[in-house]
């Protein structure tokens, strides 16, 4: 029996495998850069003469610039062609990475990080759009598995690689490492990505400006909320007002104009909208966990930077295994069932994490990491397939841009939520535990009898123990919260359509 013929891809390329490899190198380079610089911030602060609060703008400037530039992907790709955009973005991202590594002061570092965020913003959505177009419909699942590997493994290995480069070489090498990767990716795109027809599309300056104000203000609010005391600060209220007013003006403008920056008709597609809601919540879960584990391991359990990376590495192994499996399974089984399976495995991993304690070894961390990486791989790949399964192909560039934007916003919201919960619950737990511990408490007298001598030294030891347990309980509170978020997204699975029965329009 002969195998059924594959459907024709939208774009035919001579070497799709090599083009995919080049695209994924660029994607990994961009995703890696969102986390690799985090661990080097203290070293940057000392070298650039900045305070710890000022140096956080190295991260904030990149995130805000990326959020503003991401929605531009579809328009720029139509205007000058995907090949030119991809090449320009790789060149710009690589060059600004080198300039970041050469920076001698904070202002120029922030300036180069802004441009790095702008150039990097188009790489991920454009990579996804290209992979969708160069693969027949039957192989889209495998293409999304490759794409998902870059998206999910990058943030996992970023802190480890960043810590290693900073300790062994210098913080500047967390930026210089992009140079060889960028050169190889550029050569691959130049050699294997074909030129395509350019669609002249009018630029809607007002619509873009309103969306840029909304997204930039939202990212600033999420990034600076914790340090500014959230809504106790006038600055945060200003960001919230700009976010709401900018988004309101953008939506009204797009509804009233035929040549608006974004065609809102693409949001009529149920799978696409449900996919956006889904990836928003998964973004909260995925990146929140990655944000919580390094400080838990280093500050609370005393792991050094490199050992922290080694303990977290099995999460990446779980992700890679699931990507290999799901890339083959998604063409044979209902993608919704695979997503549901991945959610349940992810929820189970968070249940394991809710049992962490200060006396545990590294095994529970590695086991839960493998489980979570494996589960999220089963979620991300079929979800990407389902999200674009029924949307019209003319909307793909804009759709992938919004998918990437919503995932990033979800991760920003998730990190802000867990950071606020960690800070608040650590304080609350400390007060509650301390209120039950008096010098006459039998448990305390048995564990630390020296307290009866009214020694300040032993009192400080008791306070450190209380602080440690308070923080551990706060981390557990966050893991339970993420567990609830993961289960809350399960009903959305049943609202997604089976792509086998709803083919996209040309």
From TrEMBL:
Entry-linked InterPro entries: EmrB-like, MFS, MFS_dom, MFS_trans_sf, Sugar_transporter_CS
Domain of life: Bacteria
Domain Major facilitator superfamily (MFS) profile: 19-501
Pfam families hit by this protein: MFS_1
Cell location: Cell membrane
UniProt entry tagged with the keyword Membrane: yes
Major subcellular location class: membrane
Mode of membrane association: Multi-pass membrane protein
UniProt keyword Isomerase, yes or no: no
SUPFAM superfamilies: MFS general substrate transporter (SSF103473)
Entry keywords, A to Z: Cell membrane, Membrane, Transmembrane, Transmembrane helix, Transport
Transmembrane domains' residue ranges: 12-32, 55-77, 84-104, 110-132, 144-165, 171-193, 205-222, 234-252, 272-293, 313-331, 338-356, 362-389, 401-422, 472-496
NCBIfam families linked to this entry: efflux_EmrB (TIGR00711)
Similarity-based family: Belongs to the major facilitator superfamily. EmrB family.
Full protein name: DHA2 family efflux MFS transporter permease subunit
Source organism (scientific name): Donghicola mangrovi
């Amino acid at each position: 029996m002969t195998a059924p013929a594959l459907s024709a891809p939208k774009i035919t390329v001579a070497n799709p495998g090599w083009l995919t490899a080049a695209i994924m190198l660029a994607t990994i380079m961009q995703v890696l850069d969102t986390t690799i610089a985090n661990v080097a911030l203290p070293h940057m602060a000392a070298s650039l003469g900045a305070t710890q609060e000022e140096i956080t703008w190295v991260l904030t400037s990149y995130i805000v610039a990326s959020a503003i530039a991401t929605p531009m992907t579809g328009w720029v790709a139509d205007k000058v062609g995907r090949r030119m955009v991809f090449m320009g973005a790789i060149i710009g991202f690589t060059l600004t990475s080198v300039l970041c590594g050469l920076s001698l002061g904070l202002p120029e570092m922030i300036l180069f990080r802004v441009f790095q965020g702008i150039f990097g913003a188009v790489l991920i959505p454009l990579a996804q759009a290209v992979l969708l177009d160069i693969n027949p419909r039957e192989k889209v699942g495998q293409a999304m598995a490759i794409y998902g590997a870059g998206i999910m493994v990058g943030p996992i290995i970023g802190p480890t690689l960043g810590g290693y480069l900073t300790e062994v070489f210098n913080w500047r090498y967390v930026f210089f490492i992009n140079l060889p990767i960028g050169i190889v990716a550029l050569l691959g795109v130049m050699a294997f990505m074909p030129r395509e027809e350019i669609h002249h599309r009018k630029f809607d300056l007002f619509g873009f400006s309103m969306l840029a104000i909304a997204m930039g203000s939202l990212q600033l609010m999420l990034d600076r909320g914790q340090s500014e005391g959230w809504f106790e600060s006038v600055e945060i209220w200003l960001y919230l007002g700009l976010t709401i007013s900018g988004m309101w003006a953008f939506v009204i403008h797009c509804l009233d104009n035929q040549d608006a920056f974004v065609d809102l008709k693409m949001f009529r597609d149920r799978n696409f909208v449900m996919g956006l809601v889904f990836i928003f919540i998964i973004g909260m879960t995925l990146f929140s966990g990655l944000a919580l584990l390094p400080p838990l391991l280093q500050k609370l359990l005393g792991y050094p930077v490199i050992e922290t990376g080694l303990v977290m590495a099995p999460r990446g192994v779980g992700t890679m295994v699931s990507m290999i499996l799901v890339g083959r399974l998604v063409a044979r089984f209902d993608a919704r069932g695979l997503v549901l399976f991945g959610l349940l495995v992810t929820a189970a991993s968070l249940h394991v994490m809710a049992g962490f304690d200060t006396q545990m070894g590294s095994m529970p961390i590695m086991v839960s990491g493998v489980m979570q990486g494996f589960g999220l791989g089963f979620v991300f790949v079929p979800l990407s397939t389902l999200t674009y399964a029924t949307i019209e192909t003319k909307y793909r560039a804009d759709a992938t841009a919004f998918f990437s934007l919503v995932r990033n916003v979800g991760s920003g919201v998730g990190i802000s939520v867990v950071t606020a919960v960690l800070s608040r619950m650590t304080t609350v737990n400390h007060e509650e535990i301390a209120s039950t511990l008096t010098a006459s408490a039998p448990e305390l007298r048995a564990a630390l009898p020296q307290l009866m001598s009214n020694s300040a030294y032993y009192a400080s030891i008791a306070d450190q123990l209380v602080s440690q347990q308070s923080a551990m309980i706060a981390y557990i509170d966050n893991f339970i919260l993420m567990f609830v978020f993961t289960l809350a997204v399960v009903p959305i699975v049943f609202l997604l359509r089976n792509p086998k029965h709803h083919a996209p329009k040309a």
